[in-house]
Amino acid sequence: MPEAAEPKEYKRQPRTLHVVAIRQGQHNENAPHQETWGILKCASCPSEFSLGPPRMFGVFEEPEQYARRLKEILAGEHEQGQQHRDKYDLGA
Length: 92
Hints:
Layout: E1 20-23, E2 38-41, E3 48-52, H1 63-79, E4 87-89
C-alpha cells in the first residue's frame, strides 16, 4: 500500500484583526486564527473562498455585508481580466 502524501505546508499564515477570505485549494495562504462563516463561490468561475472573522475579536458588520463586498471584488477582477488572489482582507 502506498504511503499517504504529507500535507503541504502553507507559505503564509497571516494574523489579522480583519475579516478575511481565503481561496480554497491553494497552499500559499492559510488563516488558522480565523473562524469560518461559510464558503462563498465566485459567480463567474469555480473558485471558492472561506470567509470569516478573527476568533478573538468581533466585527462591525453582518457576515452578509462582507460576503457582498467579496462578491463585488471577485466580479470586478473578472471584468478587468485579473486572476483571483489567494487571500482578501475585507476590513474590520
